[in-house]
Amino acid sequence: MSSQWTNMAQIGVCIPAHHHYPTSAAEVQQVIAFVRACNGKCRVAGAGKSPNSSTFTNDHLLHMNRMNKIVSIDAATRLLTCEAGVLMEDVMNALDRHGLMLRCVPSYVQTTVGGCIATATHSSGITCRSLSDYVRALKVVDGRGELHTFAAEKNAKELRLAACHLGALGVVTEITLEVQPRVQWRLASNPLSMADATDAALVARKVRENEYYRWWWVPHTEGCYESCGNPDGEATDRPAAISTAMEKAAAEEKEADPPTRVTPKRPLKYEEAPVGGGLRAQHPDVSKPRIAAVDASPAAAESDNRRSSSVLDPAVATVSALTNWVTNELIRHQLVEWSLWVACRYPSLQPHINRTYQKMFYTTPAVQRGSALQCFTFDCLFRQWANEWAIDASRAVEAFQKLRAMIEREKMLLHFPVEFRFTAADDSDMSPAVGRPTCWIGVVMYRPRGQEARDTRRVYDGFNKLMEEMEGRPHWAKYYDWGHREMSAAYGSHWDRFLELRRKMDPDSLFVNEWFSHLMSPDRVNSTDFKGN
């Protein structure tokens, strides 16, 4: 029986004729045999978090949520092997119990490992690469139902092609990831002045000196906020590859024009989660540290953090729980969403909402101590569009200034935040960060109570144009409108080799849906469009 499938943001919908829920690679092969017998098409669904049409099909949709086992963890070789449908949060918790961790920790972890590598999901930090780059082996059922193994020691070049697979090579059933010894992190978050956020040399230095660094801006304000993460109690001496290029660009710019200074909660199974129910979208939750207290000064927060290691008085615990509920559920989840909903009808209110939010949540320093899962991931708020691009890291501040100028010139109204993260160059052919140190710039526009803001499409189309002018590459899971010409220009021989491997793995194009066919077509079609053909 057909039933609808959508993404977390509920942007678009498809009505697959068949839903499949395999529990093993053998069952995946049986599904593919059935699809071939029907002369059909097939796409693979993970947790449904990508707010575009990448998983959409009206034919066969294969759900991976029952292939969610962690196969093995080897501390000696520092390798983890898991099925593709396991959640990132489950992987990180399992590694933590073995004294290990992933270096790449996405901000949002209610996503499957298979989906994360398919889209080159990333974290932030000068030494950190996208999750695809930490793949050491893959098992994939191709379009003929044959099981392939890609391994670093066997066929390294093909593994790098297949790691960021876009769901176009087959069904990834098993993944082996490189892991590392667990680190206790200290994450210091502070308000950031606009003068400092637009000082390219200063930003470059912070990227160099911190193993984890990101900053974000609340549009229609002068308010920015930053987070600096390092191993707790350990001095850092980071490679200068990214920051050297950034500092050079900053110096050149200054000569021309001086600056103006997460037991994890599993989501419901698809058949238990009707369209429209219980969906939340992501937002940096810097006001709710899981480990340390929030206070007016980092020193006070660290002092409170030491005290938090002991058992709290029941009354204190009750007050703390109530405060968290008021701050994070009542205000951030309810009041903010309803305020944005009102602004959809009365757009002139948007700058006032942004300023109020910035003053409430982005003016207080905070210090957190804990695992990467505790420090680098955050709660979700509500449904949203998402648009994120990867540009050369040395152009981060330039991009920020151009984005602000565009917003002011075009009188655009934005939600919040605009986020800047940094990663090392990737080797995975289809990663947006392939071949160059990267700054990822993300612009969020919410869908409060299912309503659309006045300028969502206008903001996103303008941002896309700006990023293309800066030789950016879009995040695969988000908003863009690329065809074959744009793919060839941005990825060159990487794209050519990927298409060659795709033809080898899927000669009958069984896994090609509308979304992927658009990437191979001469026309530009938006990544959220789905006509159901």
UniProtKB/TrEMBL annotation:
Its EC number is 1.1.3.8. It holds the Pfam family FAD_binding_4. This is L-gulonolactone oxidase. GO terms for cellular component: membrane. Residues 245-288 are annotated as: Disordered. It is an enzyme of class 1 (oxidoreductase). Residues 249-258 have a biased composition (Basic and acidic residues). GO terms for molecular function: D-arabinono-1,4-lactone oxidase activity; FAD binding; L-gulonolactone oxidase activity. Keywords: Ascorbate biosynthesis, Oxidoreductase, Signal. One of its GO terms (biological process) is L-ascorbic acid biosynthetic process. It catalyses: L-gulono-1,4-lactone + O2 = L-ascorbate + H2O2 + H(+). Pathway: Cofactor biosynthesis; L-ascorbate biosynthesis. Residues 12-182 form the FAD-binding PCMH-type domain.
